[in-house]
Amino acid sequence: MVNENNSTKEKVLNALKQNEGPLSGADLSLMLKVSRTSIWKAVQSLQNSGYRIIAEKKGYRLEDVNADILCPLEFGIEKDRFIHFTETDSTMNEARKIALKSLEENDRQTRVVTADMQREGKGRGSHKWKTTQGSLAFTMVTFPEILSCEAGREVMASQIALVRTLTEISDRDFFVRWPNDVWSKDGKVAGILDDFLCTGSSCGFMNLGIGVNLSARPKIKGSDIIFDSKPSFTRKEILSMFIRKFNSMQALVKKDSDDLHKMWNQLNYDADKKVSIMERGEFIFTGINSLGFAALKSTRDNSIQIFPQGSIKYEKH
Fold it and tell me: DSSP readout, the chain?
C-alpha cells in the first residue's frame, strides 16, 4: 500500500506526536477543522503505513514515536520525493513506472522508492534479491544527464557512498566489489542494481536499486549483516545519510577526472588478488578504470584485459 502525501494525515500524525496522552476523534476534528470521517481515514492510513496508533476509550494514542518507519511523512520538507510501500513485488519495477512518467511530464526530480518487503526483489541477471526482515530496500530514481557509457560512474558513486555510510554507522570496515556489491570481510552485505533508459548516447533516467542486510542474514552462502544485535540507527537515518553522501559525489560523476575510480580502487575488496574467469584462465584484479570497467592482468602473459560490467563472472581464490 502506498503512503500518499495527505495533508490531513500529516496533521493528525503531528498532533499525536505532540500530545502525551490520547486525543479523541472529536478533539482532532475540532483541532484540524476536518470531519471525523477524515480523521478516521487518516488514522487507518497511518496504521497501514506502520505507525502504532492505539485506539482507546479516550481516543487515539501514538506509540513508538521513534519507530523504524520509512513513511514519506518522516522526511519532513523532502516528503514529496519519497514513495513507500509496505509490500511490493520490487522497488525497481515501481521506480521504472515513476521514471517514465517523470520523463513524460518533464519532471526530473530525484525520488526514492522504499519498501518494507519485496516479493520479487531483483538482482543482477537472473538473480533475485532476498529482502530480510528489517532490511533496507530502496530504489533511487535519478536523472544524471550523463552518457550511457558513463552509467558505471553512478554505480561507483553509490558503492562508495554506501561503504562510507555503513562504516560510519557500525564502526566496521566495508569494501566495494566489482561490479555492484558491498562486502565486509565476512561476506556480502549489500547489492546495487542499475536500470537506465538510453536515448541515443544519453541516459534519460538512471535508477539505482539498493538492498542492505541490516540485522537479519539471508539464507544465502557468503552473506553477512551490518548489525549483530538491534540496529543503533533507524532505516530512515541510514537512508538519509546515504543520500547525503551520494549527492555530494555527483559533481565527481560528471567530472572528467580520475578521482572517482581512484576512490573506488582504494576500497576494492579484490585489489591485487588472483581471480578465475571461466574458459579464460587466471588473472590478477588490478582495479577499474574511469568508466567502471574491470582491468585484469593475465597470469599467463601479464597482458591487461578490460571487461565492461556484466561481460564476465569471476571467482576469487
Answer: -B----HHHHHHHHHHHH-SS-B-HHHHHHHHTS-HHHHHHHHHHHHHTT-EEEEETTEEEEE-TT-----GGGGGGGGGGEEEESSBS-HHHHHHHHHHHHHHTT----EEEEES-BSS-B-STT-B----TT-EEEEEEE----BGGGHHHHHHHHHHHHHHHHHHHH----EEETTTEEEETTEEEEEEEEEEEEETTEEEEEEEEEEE--SS--SSTTB--S-SSS-SS-HHHHHHHHHHHHHHTHHHHHS-SSHHHHHHHHTBTTTT-EEEETTTEEEEEEEE-TTS-EEEEETTT--EEEE-TTS--EEE-
> CB-based contacts of 110: which residues, under 8 Å, 6+ apart?
81, 140, 141, 142, 143
Residue type, 227: F
Give residue-wise pLDDT tens across range 182-228: 999 999 999 999 999 988 889 999 999 999 999 988 888 899 999 98
User: Taking a C-beta distance cutoff of 8 angstroms, is the pair 222, 216 a contact?
Assistant: no
Q: Within 10 Å of residue 32's Cβ, how many Cβ atoms?
A: 17
* pLDDT tens profile 40-61: 999 999 998 889 999 999 999 9
Say if residue 191 is exposed, middle or buried (CB neighbours under 10 Å; 0-12, 13-18, 19+): buried
Using an 8 Å Cβ cutoff, are 156 and 261 in contact? yes
Q: Mean pLDDT, to the nearest integer, of 106-116?
A: 95
> What does the alpha-carbon distance between residue 279 and residue 293 come to, in Å, rounded to a whole number?
20
Q: What is the pLDDT of residue 32?
A: 94
In the structure grid, which three cell numbers stand for residue 195, read together? 536500470
Q: Where does residue 316 rank: exposed (0-12), middle (13-18), buried (19+ CB within 10 A)?
A: exposed
Model pLDDT for residues 113-144, shown as the tens digit of each residue: 999 999 988 777 667 787 888 899 999 999 99
Over residues 252-256, the mean pLDDT reads 86
